[in-house]
Amino acid sequence: EFMQASWDIEEVQAKGIQHLASFVKNKTFPYLLSCTEVITLAMKTHTDSLDLQVEGCTLLLEILSQALEQGVMMALDESVASCLLHTVRKHSENEEFLSMLCTLLMMVSASEVAAENLRKVGIIPDLLSILRRFLHNEEICSSCCAVLWSLAASENNADQAVLASALPVTSAVLQKHLQNGVVAEAACSALWALALRGCLTDSDYEPTAALLLDALRKNPERAVLVKNGCLALASLVRLSETAALAILLDSERRGTELLKDEYHLHLDEPGVAEALCLLMNEMVQYDEVMLDMRSQKMEKLLSEIKLQFPFS
């Protein structure tokens, strides 16, 4: 109430956020969800004050973290999403602050409702612009790709044209950060969502498949990356035989051998096995590809999977 009575006074908002932060840090604050709107509105009203933006963003991160610890998914409404977008645009050049803000957006977008609200206010072009500008920043790349994944996975088709423009920059992120498992995992997930949404053209299938294989090869131990990478490949193969041939004729090493290795590395991961089966199922829809897979003795791998997971 103290903050709401004096929106226009920056010092009141700053002091209010500091007091709220002291309660939240001590974990004695029972109104976590109810104060997010007042914090974001303070940030939107005083966008020129970087100190207030940083303190507000830090507090929102703390609130979201505590909510997740308590198993509460925060579905922030459209007005909050609009405030966050306003802040992104106002401070689009400040790399350090954007890094924190993008982490916040990633946490927010874990909620389907909040992700839909971010989509509605038109945040996708801003995310792509941030990625292009700060392609070198691992934290920003990881967070933005995770947000893109959440937004692209939505069933709303209103952003098809905007999402199509996300493919080059998402591929550039993966290419730049192939060795960084966290970033590569987020980028693979985003590419999977873009493939599901049909955002690729004929010329994209082969290079995207090759890039995903590279990501699997460089990060073999990351089960989630392997699973999502295989699901992304399956989506590509479903759309084009070119992607299936790219896996078979992989220049560095036959993709089929890589798939076998990944399965044996993750024997206790049913999600990985399921993704591999889905990928192989898409590949055998093409006669030429199926013949090649037989010559690679892929049925031996399938038999192993069947024995390992007899009840799945």
| Average pLDDT | 90
Please give the number of β-strands.
0
* Helix count from the secondary structure assignment: 18
Portion in beta strands? under 5%
Helix fraction, binned, reads: over 70%
Q: Output the structural class.
A: mainly alpha
* Biggest pleated-sheet summary: none
Radius of gyration: 22 Å
Low confidence ranges: none
For the record, give the distance between the C-alpha atoms at the N and C termini, rounded to a whole number.
55 Å
**Series of secondary-structure elements, N-terminal to C-terminal:** HHHHHHHHHHHHHHHHHH
Shape: elongated
Integer tally of domains: 2
Oligomer: single chain
Secondary structure layout:
Layout: H1 10-25, H2 36-45, H3 50-69, H4 78-90, H5 95-108, H6 112-120, H7 124-133, H8 138-152, H9 160-164, H10 166-176, H11 181-196, H12 205-218, H13 223-239, H14 241-248, H15 255-265, H16 270-283, H17 287-295, H18 298-308
Helix pairs in contact: 1-3, 2-3, 2-4, 3-5, 4-6, 5-8, 7-8, 7-10, 8-11, 10-11, 11-12, 11-13, 12-13, 12-14, 13-14, 13-16
Task: Summarize the structure in words.
- Its EC number is 2.7.11.1.
- ARM repeats lie at residues 122-166.
- This protein is mainly α and 312 residues long.
- It folds into 2 domains: 1-134; 180-311.
- Helix content is 71%, strand content 0%.
- Helix 1 packs parallel to helix 3 (50-69), helix 2 runs parallel beside helix 4 (78-90) and helix 12 runs parallel beside helix 14 (241-248).
- The protein starts with 9 loop residues before the first helix and ends with a helix.
